[in-house]
Amino acid sequence: MNLSTVQKRIHEAAMRLFAEKSVGEVNVSELAQIAGVARGTIYNNLTSIESLFEDVASQLSAEMNDRVARSANPEMQPTERLANGIRFYIRRAHEEPYWGSFLVRYAASNTTLQQMWTGPPMHDVLSGLASQKYSFRQEQLPSVMSMIGGSVLVATMLVIQGHKTWRDAGSDTAEFVLRALGVPADEAQLIATKELPLLPI
Predict the structure, then answer these.
(1) Other C-beta atoms within 10 Å of 176: how many?
(2) Which segments constitute the HTH tetR-type domain (predicted)?
(3) Closest among 4, 1, 125, 126 to 55, alpha carbons compared
(4) 128: alpha, beta or left, given left = phi > 0 and alpha = psi -120 to 50?
(5) Averaged pLDDT for residues 42-51
(6) Where would I find the H helices in the chain?
């Protein structure tokens, strides 16, 4: 989804509002004010607040997974790709609190946002299973992805609420997920504490 400059401003304003309020509480006037555009511009760029919410959720999911996928070189082990992906999400929530708050508030219940865990993260898990880095039964994959997604959301919440730093929450979560998937403890800790590269734009 390629967005114009105006659409990006509207999406950013919408994410900020949706992170704080339910969809039914958001109105065009405050959306226009925060986005810094006229009300008419808002009307010209959306059909409803509900459709805007789905657009924002879809864009968030696709954009973040694309950036995480591009961060890894082809030779990187699936264990490191998964650990980095987990830490990227948690670090971004620290750097962009509205983004993290939106994720925490809706990702467990919104179907569009749940697709975050069925793209590149699932491919990394399946790759790790195929290469015998992980040990679980194929039919357990939905439960594995639920564990990963839930762990990321709770760790994100800890960071947003100030209980943990993103570094500690990210490394701990990545380490525990890898250990749960069958990676030896020492190896999991080493992978989860490597220097995290920049997330591509």
Answers:
(1) 18
(2) 4-64
(3) 1
(4) alpha
(5) 90
(6) 5-20, 28-35, 39-45, 49-71, 78-95, 97-106, 111-114, 120-130, 141-160, 166-180, 185-192
Q: Residue count of the chain, please give it.
A: 201
Going from N- to C-terminal start, the domains of the chain cover 56-192
Q: Coil, strand or helix: which one is 176?
A: helix
Query: Can you identify the CATH homologous superfamily of domain 56-192?
Result: Tetracycline Repressor, domain 2 (1.10.357.10)
Report DSSP letters for 78-126, one per residue: HHHHHHHHHHHHHHHHHH-HHHHHHHHHHTTT-HHHHGGGGSHHHHHHH
Q: For the stretch 153-162, what's the b/e string if a residue is b when 16 or more beta carbons lie within 10 angstroms of its beta carbon?
A: bebbbbbbee
pLDDT tens digits, one per residue of 110-130: 888 888 888 888 988 999 999
Distance of alpha carbon 135 from alpha carbon 195, whole angstroms: 26
d(CA 11, CA 16): 9
**From CA 105, how far away is CA 160, in angstroms rounded?**
12
How many Å apart are CA 85 and CA 89, to the nearest integer? Answer: 6
Question: Which residues are CB-contacts of 65 (< 8 A; sequence separation ≥ 6)?
Answer: 116, 119, 120, 121
**Predicted TM-score (pTM) of this structure:** 0.92
Closest CA to 113 of 15, 201, 38, 34: 15
